[in-house]
Amino acid sequence: MRGRKKININVQALKKSYPQEKGAVRLFFEDEASFARVSTPKHCWAAKGVRPVIQSQGVLCFVEVFGAVEPETGDFFYKVTEREKPIKKKAGRRRDGETAETVMPKLKEKGRKSRLMNEFMQKLCDKYPNDLIILVCDNAGWHKSQYTVIPERLTLLHIPPYTPEMNPIEQLWREIRTSGFYNKYFDTIEKAKTNLRVTINKIPIETIKSITQRKWIMECVKSDSA
User: Which domains are assigned to the chain?
Assistant: First the structure.
């Protein structure tokens, strides 16, 4: 409740201070997710007496996605990072000649995810050039590190620790996984990326709104009082 009140107070204050003639004040919720070539077998329909056969694989290779959803309108903005995210092999399973450097690229250079976050926030602002963006996210380190640069027309708000239920984009990620990745086989990471984009584009706006609209969120965007 305390986190909701804080978001509501900030939204109302920004709505009052931002001139209407310049643009709108938009409330987005942000999160990151990983989608992989790893197959996820789940229950499915099949003809009576027929046992379904699902291709499966253990290729541990991921792509990272930054996403932001606006519950009021159902707008969903996302960016797939170009860099793949392999899983580090255990030391005892390396082949001859492999080292930690060859098994897993150095993906943890200082500020990497903060810079990806910076790029995502700037592109989000570019999509709405006249509007003030309120972006609600969790307390991940790259959301508030020394490398994080917040664009001029964007205000970053953080939900309290250990409250993922306050971020409705979590349910949207679940919908994407359910409709686009369960019982699916991708022989390349590019096909997984393409499937991700196709799956997102197939989700109707009204479905996104029904998944992400919460009573307290709609009270924030509709109310004119603090």
Answer: 2-222 (3.30.420.10)
